[in-house]
Design goal:
Number of helices: 11
Strand order of the largest sheet: 5-6-7-4-10-13-14
Largest sheet: 7 strands, mixed
Number of strands: 15
Helix content: 25-40%
Shape: globular
Radius of gyration: 27 Å
Distance between the termini: 17 Å
Length: 444
């Protein structure tokens, strides 16, 4: 679909017209009237006029500027099918997509949707201008696998526009820290694995499949020292908290005598956020560092328990044992909110951010939850490489091992989550020289 702009209106007509021009005009009117009465028998040749095509979709705006998005609720909108300018990159163009995020689906329609806010337009991302905005800066995503997907998406978006000789990727701290560097821009795009933000026994990327999860709600320095010098930090934590109770350690894993206690999950989450907030208040450079918090990423998982009177599949019209397996369409019910999104944790984040604001620390919440709720078809499902070999019982029942928590790439993370909203915020805040962070036609 080609989007066209209406031609601008001509200037005001002059008021002095010669008499014979008026006569000619009257004659022309008589001729046109005669042709009109003759019906279709006489062909009428009209001068070509550029007309805007009618469509349910809004055309991309002529230009992207801070004024066009300032004050707009970027997170209230709908998904619009666009198979001309999306996806923003192809899987075979990016070697950084992990087995967890790569999908081997035959139906790729989930890649062709873009998020369209109701109040404004979001033109396609311009990777070169994004890199220019990050010149001399360090952006880091901190959190669980949702933010890993954000990091991979952003790296995949920008890396294809950089010559191989001036880009590099490296891994540190037993692969807890991943660094992409665009040398020409002296820009770093990093990811740090901290699934619970505070320290826990799940921090070791080589030993993630633990039967018992233990969190140190008062300890964060081991992680946070690797973020201190960043210019932009995007936090998230959600999936690893999804259990009724959390085992909390007061003390250290390296020392004996620690106190262990199982407490309510929401309370443990609040305690961890309090530790995170206190660290930001003391250590963050308030004049340099931009802070963001990604809201929770919904799951479309099968649940053995009835939640709010429904099991997951029933929430969108399937049987009670259903999940994202074999789903090819998104949820179309406006404002759909599933049981895989815990409002209690969202409120805890909002409360922590509000308290920080009163202390002079600003954290912007990227509220991607609602836009992601609709996308039950965009998960890997069974179409991903499995870290652990599947049992015969699992293979006979695909629903049992479908991944309905992560997102396929390219897809929801780059087309509707932080990558577009974050870029707008970066653009508005950093006031870069380039005024074309987004390209209106979808080509760089």
């Amino acid at each position: 679909m080609a989007y066209k702009l209406l031609p601008t209106a001509p200037g005001t007509w002059g008021v002095r017209i010669r008499f014979h021009y008026l006569i000619a005009l009257l004659i022309a009117i008589v001729v046109v009237a005669a042709v009109y009465r003759a019906g279709d028998s006489v062909p009428v040749v009209k001068a070509p006029v550029e007309v805007q095509q009618e469509s349910d979709e809004k055309p991309y705006p002529a230009a992207a500027s801070p004024a066009s998005v300032e004050g707009c609720d970027l997170f209230s909108g709908r998904w619009v099918f666009d198979n001309e300018s999306y996806p923003l990159y192809k899987e075979n163009q990016c070697s950084f997509i992990s087995d967890q995020l790569a999908c081997e689906k035959k139906d790729l329609s989930y890649q062709y949707w873009r998020w369209q806010p109701y109040q404004c337009d979001l033109p396609r991302l311009n990777a070169t201008a994004l890199l220019e905005s990050l010149r001399g800066k360090r952006l880091i995503f901190v959190g669980d696998s949702l933010n890993l997907g954000q990091w991979v998406s952003m790296v995949c978006l920008v890396q294809k526009w950089i010559d191989p000789s001036v880009k590099s990727i490296s891994y540190h701290l037993n692969r807890s820290l991943s660094t992409f560097k665009a040398h020409e821009y002296n820009a770093l795009i990093d990811y740090y694995w901290a699934p619970l933000l505070v320290e826990s026994n799940s921090d070791d990327t080589a030993n993630l499949h633990l039967l018992e999860r233990i969190v140190q709600v008062k300890a964060i320095e081991k992680h946070a020292r690797h973020w201190t010098d960043a210019d932009i930090i995007v936090f998230n934590t959600y999936l690893w908290w999804l259990r009724d109770k959390m085992k909390v350690l007061w003390g250290s894993f390296d020392e004996s005598g620690g106190i262990y206690k199982e407490i309510n999950m929401v309370r443990a989450y609040e305690m961890a956020l309090n530790t995170w907030s206190e660290w930001l208040e003391v250590h963050v450079n308030r004049t340099k560092t931009q802070l963001f918090f990604m809201s929770l990423s919904p799951t479309h998982l099968r649940t053995l328990l009835t939640i709010n009177g429904h099991r997951r599949g029933e929430e969108w019209g399937m049987g009670m044992d259903g999940n994202c397996y074999n789903e090819t369409d998104m949820i179309t019910e406006e404002g759909h909110w599933g049981s895989g999104s815990d409002l209690r944790l969202m409120r805890a984040v909002e409360a922590a951010v509000d308290r920080l604001r009163t202390r002079g620390v600003t954290v912007k919440i990227l509220n991607i939850t609602q836009l992601s709720e609709y996308r039950k078809e965009a998960h890997p499902s069974i179409y991903r490489n499995q870290n652990v070999p599947l049992t015969e019982e699992q293979l006979s029942n695909p629903v049992s091992y479908a991944d309905c928590a992560h997102w396929c790439l390219p897809g929801v993370p780059i087309h509707g989550m932080s990558s577009f909203t974050l870029t707008y915020f970066i653009y508005l805040k950093l006031e870069t020289k380039s005024r074309s962070v987004f390209n209106i036609l979808g080509t760089e």
